[in-house]
Amino acid sequence: MASASHLTRRRFVAVNLLLAVLLVASIVLASMIGSVHVDLWRALQSGVPNNTDRMILFETRLPRVLLAAIVGGALASAGVVLQGLLRNPLAEPHLIGVSGGAALGAVIAVIVGGRGAFAEAGLLPLAAAVGALLSMAVIYRLSLVHGRLQPYVLLLAGVIYNAVAGALIMCVNAIADFYQAQGILFWLMGNLATESYRLVITIGVYSVVSSACLLSQTRELNVLSLGEEGALQLGVQVDRVRRVTFVAASLLIGAVVSVSGMIGFVGLIVPHVMRLILGADHRLLLPASLLAGGVFLVWADTVARTALGVVEIPVGVVTALCGGPFFVYLLKREGSKVFG
After folding, report:
1. How far apart are CA 94 and CA 241, in angstroms?
2. Does the pLDDT of residue 146 top 60, yes or no?
């Protein structure tokens, strides 16, 4: 709580304004990068017939880059609140099984109703959110020991749940037709390809509503860093905060997983880096991580679609290559604290 008292309005505005400018600059620059060169001046001319530069920039690249910014911000935000709520620095949507539950819900919805129908109706994010919420509830119940939440038991329960969810996804995928199965497998590895601004707007609305709910809980998350007993003594309704945060985080994770698949480690890397730079005050850490997460995933996706020329690799592979060593470092650091 000591760091929370040092937050001023000027620092809050300065940090977030700087990150917002960095995010906008990243979106513009990433939209210009690709295997095909785009003439920006020609792309901005709306009256030119058969303007391929305009089509590439505004109908292919820009929707994808905007989606990457939204997904990255959402995953980083979810990572911040889960780490704060569970008081576990290794908590992350992908690692604790919530993303796996969201993916399972989305895959079942696609098999039952078809991806296009659910996506057009805005129901695919809702189906994934239900899967995320159910997985969160199961993992939370498994992590209670004598009525108390044990953070490291939760991490272990999440790993086990992830394995079970992965097996169920493969089982469901086995009964799908060939083209559905291929699409689902590529999507599960992390895929941000889209040409639909309507989809970007839909996911953006889900993310804004959920993020607003999480932002309303930042003061309580600061107090919870003292521990549940200390928070209760200071008047925080721990159960209510936990319910609101779990539901909002599940909606957020479900929304982005439904369109991007399983993109791991964004919610681990970004919150830790921002915490090292800015401190642990959630009032600043959460919005800053949201913006920084967008920057991180925009560039990770740019690498994924350009590193091998015309051959695209899943963005989840890029984030895993960055996050794997980072996770090992954190695991060793936390292990040395626990075991001396």
Report:
1. 22
2. yes
Relative to beta strand 144-145, strand 148-149 is antiparallel
Amino acid (one-letter) located at 15: V
Give the model confidence (pLDDT) of 85-138 as tens digits: 887 777 888 888 889 899 998 888 877 766 555 554 457 788 888 899 899 888
The DSSP output letter for 264 is -
Looking at the chain, how many residues does it have?
340
210/206 Cα distance (integer angstroms): 6
Write the CB contacts of 154 (distance below 8 Å, at least 6 apart in sequence): 86, 88, 91, 96, 139, 140, 142, 143
CA count, 13 A, side-chain hemisphere, 273:
20
Domains located in the chain, CATH noted: 6-33+54-334 (1.10.3470.10)
pLDDT tens digits for range 197-231: 988 998 899 899 999 999 999 999 999 887 777 88
Burial class (CB in 10 A: 0-12, 13-18, 19+), 178: exposed
pTM (two decimals): 0.88
d(CA 169, CA 291): 31
Predicted local distance difference test score (pLDDT) of residue 337: 59
Q: What share of the chain is helix, strand, coil (3-state, %, to 5)?
A: 75, 0, 20
DSSP annotation of 311 reads B
Give the E-state strand segments of the chain in sequence order.
144-145, 148-149
